[in-house]
Amino acid sequence: MYRSLVALTFATAVLGQQVGTLTAEKHPSMPMEVCSAAGSCKKENTAVVLDSNWRWTHVTSGYTNCYSGNSWNETACPDGKTCATNCALDGADYAKTYGISSPSSGALKLQFVTKNSDGTNVGSRVYLMASETKYRTFNLLNKEFTLDVDVSKLPCGLNGAVYFSEMDEDGGLSRFPSNKAGAKYGTGYCDSQCPTDIKFINGEANVDGWEAGSGKTGTCCAEMDIWEANLDSAAYTPHPCKVTTQTKCEGVDCGNGDDRYAGLCDKDGCDFNSFRMGVDDFYGTSKTVDTSEPFTVVTQFITDDGTDTGTLSKINRFYVQGGKVIPNSAAAVEGVDAVNHISDGFCKQQKEAFGDNNYFATVGGMATMGKSLEKMVLVLSVWDDTAVSMNWLDSTFPTDADPTKPGVVRGRCDPGAGLPKTVEAAHPDSYVIYSKIRLGAINSTFAA
């Protein structure tokens, strides 16, 4: 909800739009399955690619960085277009530099902090690939998406996130001629927070107004958060937008500060966090869903007429652990019906009960979200939060709000536990493991 990623902290952590040749790019394998019915699943040989914001970029004629610390190389990058021409985006050593590995077939381990010969990498973000040059796109309407997760080594203040963003299949390669790298090098990112820390947007460097790791423009698109979680808290959240493709924003459209409820996207979304919804014994270590052990997460996208072309009406959640199917907890907040799914009705009641702005409805609610679900790209990441220390997920938020007010407390974590300086020092060995990705017809991808 308040995603603000910090990529590599060493000097060579930058990206560009030309293609470098100093490091070979080899996408780690992460096969998935597509299921037409229970017990009838076919394997797809998918892989993952590292987001371009983490990659080393240098001048095309050598090794000189195009970006160091929080500053652009003024010689190579006097403006966005020139920078895109002068700078090359190179391949990645996934395991050694970024802590991204495959512990088994169909599994992906994302290490939180990785020490390497160049310095320290913090967090990562990868996308599922259908081929060497295209992201794997998903139509989620009237489907269910399932994966296994292991958050047993993911403490307070961290977020193992699995979500869908309405990115271009080719990473913007065809829409923006100055982008020569494309999906093969993880370009074209966008989400509902319209992030302004993306160094290249629409094939040009985000140089104008760049200060302290953030530029003048952002990159917006609809986002469906399947899984934002750690050991203590978890949420799933649709974030619709007024736009239906990756869109560059500036000013009010980015929705920053006082413009939060005037921008292109619903940054708050409509979240279902069991703890926030009044059930504090459902998710966590030794709870109903025991986060000390791996489990399966199932998300169903129900349409009003039960077809792939219908209008999104409801998003269901189930878990599978220890041979048991566990339905999502039901809401236990005064003024909210005791449902365990997300719908327009649930969102309206939740926003009223918590005193929140229902920008979700203003932007178009479930129907608008459903349109975006027809063409989504899968994102997997691990990150800490430089903006608000992940308090919106697992602690009290806002931190100065009355904790007895409904919706303020989202988990058991101390508000200070998620400070990046604190969590990076105390828990550098943290990691998350994602595995067994499946897409299929309703009730086809999981069983007790």
Automatic annotation (TrEMBL):
* Gene3D superfamilies noted in UniProt: Glycoside hydrolase, family 7, domain (2.70.100.10)
State what protein this is by name. Glucanase
**Which residues does UniProt call coiled coil?**
none
- Provide the leader sequence positions: 1-16
Instruction: Identify which top EC class this enzyme belongs to.
Output: hydrolase
> Keywords for this entry?
Carbohydrate metabolism, Cellulose degradation, Glycosidase, Hydrolase, Polysaccharide degradation, Signal
Q: Does the keyword Zinc-finger apply?
A: no
